[in-house]
């Protein structure tokens, strides 16, 4: 099979770019900790979420220093709790699960954006440097009231 | 512009033409109904109308997604693949292939009608991704099985015709378009095995109440195992047109037969074991396996770059053969006033930003910014709804006349060019607004809302209005296309050539490596890669002891 010289050059250049790009992605994910959600696996019986710790007491709690833990339940059509407050500079570890269908958890203006799947607990950590009222919304269709499903985080 | 070359091309047999036309008519019927749903959706999302008669936004969204992304594409593609195989393997379909084509068409259509009825009855408002544990009427899933099984029967017909040709032309490569049709169908069948397994083993027993719970992560993984190759199933027929038909329409030659085949085989291999890049933001799958599939995903960039090279090489060679000078002089020699070239060309052009958007979406951590936002919706409205759809429209302008023994009149050609411009304008406005507002965080798949007047959500509204403007223009383009189809079916009688490009250097045909058609090799490579990419994560999903989910109806 004959490959034109210019095409060989074009493909080698393209392949080299691709390798560089994938290495950058890999370094970002593994060396700088910008990986995808849930590097550790946790599950929960979706029908017993409200009786299972930590979701029996959903809400935000102080862990240590500037670290907070937010345990949230997503359900059709809302989040429990429906309001949270943290000081500016707080690093919040979100643990979220669902009691019914699949939901989303997205904070516009941040990189907090993940799926909430029944039976699974999803985790993301984020540091809120800027004060303000952050919107948390469901970005996966979950039923007729999907567009009413949101909550807020106030960063003081 | 229509050259009659009877020595090279004889008319299609009526029986074969009718099968192709049947597929095309269902496709364009779906485009029209899906277009109405799309128009209403964009108006609701802008906050300009509320729906009458208790019609739900998500019900429309389900109809739009199913009719456009599944019905329009699948029917058009199968019709086109049949026509390509008939044109390049001989003058007519074998009796067996024709029969399988009609049986497949019948089974698919029964499924499509049942699914549409249940969507319209609001019994299946689960969107085209039907994520568990949201439960539609069991008959909706039964209908989906019919669509998939019907398409497999059609695939058997294509393989039968291909096998017959190979048997009677030993030692020779099959015609390029037939080879490409076989790869496209093979990709579809391997991919749909995933969704068929999910529906048959998981959804149907669970929705009828024979089992109580469903494993949600397994169902999502099986869906996305199918969901990514699906986009290449849409794209490959467009590539067939770009590689093997456009050169003929402009009056040039195909750049390289063997390289075109190689790129199709690479798409077959690399488009299937990559579904996790749609699940990057999900729990239950380890980041390492996600990253491995991201790497595999990006391998499809290689055949995409090959395609881009081949297309522009064809254009430039043609231009230079016509005496064009300078680096871009060939640009002026292209037949801009021929809709058969112009519509697919606009598709190719828009594929450049569309493909770049795809690279963003699949980029591991970058995905957190765009995941499930309108950016994604904007992205696939550029890929499927522009690159692929415009190419399909361009094909229609010669395919329908060629199948029905009619001709494309100069007036219809002009209407086609106008339709293309309206489509491009509407999509640029709508998809542009979606990309921008998606980066600002606006979610996809959501009806009009300002989330209690939150400042972020309020700032999205002007873009949603722009989406509605684009959506309205697009609806005009859908109506124009419908009118064009009706006019094509009533065009003056005559002979229209089915354009198939020849290779630049005829000797190259002999240099197509025989291994390209040793299917056992390619299927084995695909299976090995699928097993590598999915076995460990699937075993993990089945063994974590995550309790299954009972059904929910939330609409």
UniProtKB/TrEMBL annotation, chain A:
The chain crosses the membrane at residues 9-32. Keywords: Copper, Membrane, Metal-binding, Transmembrane, Transmembrane helix. Its main location: other. Residues 65-156 form the Cytochrome oxidase subunit II copper A binding domain. GO terms for cellular component: cell envelope; membrane. Pfam families: COX2. The keyword Zinc does not apply. It catalyses: 4 Fe(II)-[cytochrome c] + O2 + 8 H(+)(in) = 4 Fe(III)-[cytochrome c] + 2 H2O + 4 H(+)(out). GO terms for molecular function: copper ion binding; cytochrome-c oxidase activity. It is found in: Cell envelope. Subunits I and II form the functional core of the enzyme complex. Electrons originating in cytochrome c are transferred via heme a and Cu(A) to the binuclear center formed by heme a3 and Cu(B). This is Cytochrome aa3 subunit 2. It comes from Paenibacillus antri. The lineage of its organism: Bacteria, Bacillati, Bacillota, Bacilli, Bacillales.
């Amino acid at each position: 099979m004959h490959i034109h010289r210019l095409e060989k050059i074009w493909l080698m250049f393209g392949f080299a770019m691709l390798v560089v790009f994938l290495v950058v992605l890999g370094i970002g994910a593994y060396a700088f900790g910008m990986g995808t959600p849930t590097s550790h696996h946790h599950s929960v019986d979706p029908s017993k979420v409200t009786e299972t710790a930590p979701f029996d007491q959903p809400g935000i709690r102080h862990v240590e220093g500037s670290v907070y833990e937010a345990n949230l339940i997503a359900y059709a059509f809302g989040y429990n709790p429906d309001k949270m407050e943290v000081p500016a500079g707080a690093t919040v570890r979100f643990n979220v699960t669902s009691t019914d269908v699949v939901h989303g958890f997205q904070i516009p203006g941040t990189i907090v954006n993940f799926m909430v799947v029944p039976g699974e607990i999803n985790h993301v950590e984020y540091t809120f440097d800027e004060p303000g009222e952050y919107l948390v919304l469901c970005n996966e269709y979950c039923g007729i009231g999907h567009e009413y499903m949101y909550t807020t985080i106030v960063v003081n | 512009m229509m050259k009659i070359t009877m020595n090279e091309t004889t008319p299609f047999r009526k029986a074969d033409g009718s099968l192709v036309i049947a597929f095309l008519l269902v496709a364009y019927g779906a485009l029209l109904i899906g277009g109405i749903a799309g128009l209403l959706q964009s108006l609701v999302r802008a906050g300009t109308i509320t729906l009458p008669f208790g019609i739900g936004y998500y019900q429309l969204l389900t109809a739009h997604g199913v009719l456009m992304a599944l019905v329009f594409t699948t029917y058009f593609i199968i019709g086109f693949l049949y026509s390509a195989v008939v044109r390049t393997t001989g003058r007519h379909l074998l009796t067996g292939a024709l029969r399988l084509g009609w049986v497949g068409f019948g089974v698919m259509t029964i499924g499509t009608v049942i699914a549409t009825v249940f969507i319209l009855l609001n019994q299946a408002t689960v969107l085209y991704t039907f994520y568990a544990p949201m439960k539609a009427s069991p008959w909706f899933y039964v209908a989906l099985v019919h669509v998939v099984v019907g398409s497999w029967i059609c695939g058997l017909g294509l393989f039968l015709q291909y096998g017959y040709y190979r048997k009677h032309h030993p030692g020779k490569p099959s015609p390029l378009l037939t080879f490409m049709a076989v790869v496209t169908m093979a990709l579809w069948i391997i991919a749909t095995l995933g969704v068929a397994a999910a529906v048959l083993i998981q959804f149907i027993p669970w929705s009828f109440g024979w089992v109580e719970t469903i494993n949600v992560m397994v169902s999502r993984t099986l869906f996305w195992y199918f969901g990514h190759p699906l986009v290449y199933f849409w794209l490959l027929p467009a590539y067939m047109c770009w590689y093997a038909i456009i050169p003929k329409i402009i009056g040039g030659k195909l750049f390289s037969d063997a390289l075109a085949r190689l790129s199709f085989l690479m798409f077959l291999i690399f488009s299937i074991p990559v579904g996790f890049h749609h699940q990057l933001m999900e729990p239950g799958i380890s980041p390492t396996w996600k990253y491995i599939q991201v790497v595999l995903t990006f391998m499809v960039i290689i055949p995409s770059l090959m395609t881009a090279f081949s297309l522009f090489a064809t254009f430039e060679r043609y231009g230079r053969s016509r005496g064009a000078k300078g680096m871009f002089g060939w640009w002026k020699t292209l037949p801009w006033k021929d809709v058969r070239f112009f519509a697919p060309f606009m598709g190719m052009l828009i594929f450049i930003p569309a493909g770049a958007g795809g690279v963003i979406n699949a980029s591991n951590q970058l995905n957190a910014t765009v995941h499930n936002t309108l950016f994604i919706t904007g992205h696939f409205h550029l890929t499927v709804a522009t690159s692929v759809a415009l190419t399909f429209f361009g094909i229609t302008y010669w395919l329908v006349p060629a199948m029905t023994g009619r001709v494309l009149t100069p007036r219809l050609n002009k209407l086609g060019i106008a339709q293309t411009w309206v489509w491009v304008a509407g999509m640029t406005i709508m998809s542009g607004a979606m990309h921008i507002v998606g980066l600002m965080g606006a979610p996809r798949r959501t009806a009009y809302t300002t989330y209690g007047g939150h400042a972020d959500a309020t700032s999205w509204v002007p873009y949603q209005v722009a989406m509605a403007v684009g959506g309205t223009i697009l609806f005009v383009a859908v109506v124009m296309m419908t009118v064009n189809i009706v006019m094509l079916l009533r065009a003056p009688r005559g002979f229209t050539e089915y354009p198939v490009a020849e290779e630049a250097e005829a000797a190259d045909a002999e240099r197509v490596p025989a291994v390209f058609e040793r299917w056992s090799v390619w299927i084995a490579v695909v299976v090995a890669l699928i097993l590598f990419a999915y076995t460990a994560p699937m075993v993990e999903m089945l063994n974590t002891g995550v309790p299954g989910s009972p059904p929910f109806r939330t609409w």
